[in-house]
């Protein structure tokens, strides 16, 4: 790769941007920290909410870290990584998506300070990884083991999660709903429990009050009974699921029918009517009294079905059809002729009910008792949407504890305790890695510090008060974010799943060390870039030597 005759060798495309070594690292750290600073103010019960406006002008008001970052649409690759970290946290445990971003930012900040003191990034990376392993063990040790079916404990955890949300005023009621829902679908496995949250169907309908949000033992379908003459309620429902139109299909090609006499016309119409009549008859013959159709149902067929006393709904979502199949034990068939008694499902009651201005169909007492739904109510659409996101977090943390029944106190208590233990551990280390382990401990304390800051307390006073309480053995002392003082969080019932904390430490360490390892950023110019991965890093090998000739 040497230049011949003083001519620079072209390696990268024209317009490619490249930064190396300290510059690359510095830029990445800066971008990641900007993202982290942006979400900091929204942490905890006194955290602020964000109003986000997307390119279509749609407004989202939220406090949820993962949602905020998703909507922010950041561009810098390192900033994008922060978005991914919070998404991983959301996928794995469902809560702590703001915390994980803040911790990542702080780990990078502390690393930058160490690098200023000429500690090599590799030493920092090794120290961080060692500290992470220890921190995870420590979390395991300080966590309290609980009974996974203890409703009181599960409710405490759910309420803590909702404390920091817009809808926190209703956390008591919503937590009851979340705990009941999760316990109902929890299945025993290998001496513990497994929870598949997909079994809980969440429907939302603005109107009424949030206290009207409730758990339904079955499914809610956001459709109406298709014909006025049909029954609006069916007990002992034998349910057919059809993925085909109950209409006369139009031919794909233009075709002509030559009709010469009025009799022929009548015969043609009669035949058409007979076909439609036969469709309704097929349903009746299959001994089905409730029909859910994924496609349309012709007016005439509706009329014949209603005459047979069959309750029907049309144009259901595919996901609703799948949920109905799972819940009622029915099989979705692809043609009217295939409807049969054997493939029909069962529910004790199918009923159309009025919910505010709309009508919805409730399918209750399903063959599978584990099918449950939550109907979220609330003043406006935005409130209902945020309630949905908060309920998602609540369902996730309850699931976390049911599956792994270990909890720690919130309000930053567990972070201070782990930081204290890590500093003790660092005492025994020699060399520069020790500095990295101490930096890691300091970084964890960003959570209590931020909580204190957000509730208007003096963070330095608060942290030293908490540290001294911990040194005296009060491991659950943290920030009482409601009354703005240092307090025993266990007494306040502020508990969180241990796995949320563990996952945050794991993901934050991974992301921070990954960013610290990058010493070369090559970004192909956006305009001229060939199709490559987003972020514009496509096509170039990673480890280019540092001293290349200038790019042209
Ligand atoms: N009453 C309380 N007093 C003090 N801190 C609290 C209280 N309730 C909850 N917290 C703390 O608030 C923090 C959680 O805040 P928040 O829910 O805003 O962020 P997150 O869980 O990291 O992210 P997200 O919920 O957006 O996924 C946790 O550290 C938790 O311990
Ligand atoms: Mg939270």
Structural class: alpha+beta
How much beta, percentage-wise? 15-25%
- Considering DSSP H and I runs of 4 or more, what fraction of the residues is helical? 40-55%
Mean pLDDT across residues: 88
How can the largest sheet be summarized? 7 strands, mixed
Q: How would you describe the shape?
A: elongated
Question: Unreliable runs, pLDDT <50, ≥5 residues?
Answer: 528-552
Number of strands: 21
Number of helices: 16
Which cofactors or ions or other ligands sit in this model?
adenosine-5'-triphosphate, magnesium ion
N-to-C span: 15 Å
Radius of gyration: 30 Å
Write up this protein.
This protein is α+β, with helices and mostly antiparallel strands and 552 residues long. Helix content is 45%, strand content 18%. It contains 16 helices and 21 strands. The strands form 7 sheets. Strands 9, 10, 11, 12, 13, 14 and 15 form a 7-stranded mixed beta sheet that branches. A 3-stranded antiparallel beta sheet has the order 4-17-20. A hairpin with a 4-residue loop joins strand 18 and strand 19. Helix 4 packs antiparallel against helix 13 (433-444). The longest helix is centred in the middle third of the chain and has 24 residues, at 262-285. The two termini are 15 Å apart. The model is unreliable at 528-552 (pLDDT under 50). The structure holds adenosine-5'-triphosphate (ATP) and magnesium ion. Adenosine-5'-triphosphate binds at residues 42-45, 47, 63-66, 95-99, 160, 163-164, 393, 410-412, 447, 451, 479-482, 494, 496.
């Amino acid at each position: 790769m040497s230049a011949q005759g003083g001519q620079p060798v072209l390696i990268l495309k024209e317009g490619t941007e490249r930064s190396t070594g300290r510059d690359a690292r510095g830029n990445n750290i800066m971008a990641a920290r900007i993202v982290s600073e942006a979400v900091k103010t929204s942490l905890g019960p006194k955290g602020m909410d964000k109003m986000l406006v997307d390119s279509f002008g749609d407004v989202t008001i939220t406090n949820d870290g993962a949602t905020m970052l998703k909507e922010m649409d950041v561009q810098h690759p390192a900033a994008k990584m922060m978005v991914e970290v919070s998404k991983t946290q959301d996928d794995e445990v469902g809560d702590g998506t703001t915390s994980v971003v803040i911790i990542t930012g702080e780990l990078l900040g502390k690393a930058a300070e160490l690098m200023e003191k000429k500690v090599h990034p590799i030493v920092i990376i090794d120290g961080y990884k060692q500290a992470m392993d220890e921190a995870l063990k420590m979390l395991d040790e300080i966590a309290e083991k609980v009974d996974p079916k203890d409703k009181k404990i599960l409710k405490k955890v759910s309420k803590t999660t909702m404390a920091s949300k817009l809808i926190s005023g209703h956390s008591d009621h919503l937590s009851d709903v979340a705990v009941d829902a999760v316990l109902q679908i929890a299945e025993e496995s290998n001496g513990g429990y497994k929870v598949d949250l997909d079994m809980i169907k969440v429907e939302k309908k603005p109107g009424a009050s949030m206290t009207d949000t409730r758990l339904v033992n079955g499914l809610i379908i956001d459709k109406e009974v298709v014909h006025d003459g049909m029954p609006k309620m069916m007990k002992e429902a034998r349910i057919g699921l059809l993925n085909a139109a109950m209409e006369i299909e139009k031919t794909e090609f233009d075709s002509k029918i030559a009709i010469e006499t009025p009799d022929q016309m009548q015969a043609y119409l009669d035949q058409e009517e007979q076909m439609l009549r036969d469709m309704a008859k097929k349903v009746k013959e299959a001994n089905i009294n409730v029909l859910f159709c994924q496609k349309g149902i012709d007016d005439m067929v509706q009329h014949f079905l209603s005459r047979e006393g069959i309750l029907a709904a049309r144009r259901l979502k595919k996901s609703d059809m799948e949920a109905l199949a799972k819940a009622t034990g029915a099989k979705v068939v692809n043609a009217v002729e295939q409807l049969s008694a054997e493939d029909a499902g069962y529910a004790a009651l199918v009923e159309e009910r009025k919910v505010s201005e709309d009508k919805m169909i409730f399918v209750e007492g399903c063959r599978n008792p584990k099918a449950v739904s939550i109907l979220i109510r609330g003043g406006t659409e935005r409130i209902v949407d945020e309630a949905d996101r908060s309920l998602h977090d609540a369902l996730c943390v309850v699931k976390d504890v049911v599956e792994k029944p270990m909890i720690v106190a919130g309000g930053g208590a567990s972070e201070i305790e782990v930081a204290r233990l890590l500093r003790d551990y660092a005492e025994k280390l020699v060399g520069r890695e020790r500095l990295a382990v101490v930096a890691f401990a300091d970084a964890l304390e960003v959570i209590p510090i931020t909580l204190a800051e957000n509730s208007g307390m003096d963070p330095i006073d608060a942290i030293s008060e908490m540290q001294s309480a911990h040194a005296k053995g009060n491991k659950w002392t943290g920030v009482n974010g409601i009354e703005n003082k240092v307090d025993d969080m266990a007494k306040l019932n502020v508990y969180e799943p241990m796995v949320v904390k563990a996952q945050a430490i794991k993901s934050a360490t991974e992301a921070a060390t990954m960013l610290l390892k990058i010493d070369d950023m090559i970004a192909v110019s956006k305009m001229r870039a060939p199709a490559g991965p987003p972020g514009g890093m496509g096509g170039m090998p990673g480890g280019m030597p540092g001293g290349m000739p200038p790019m042209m």
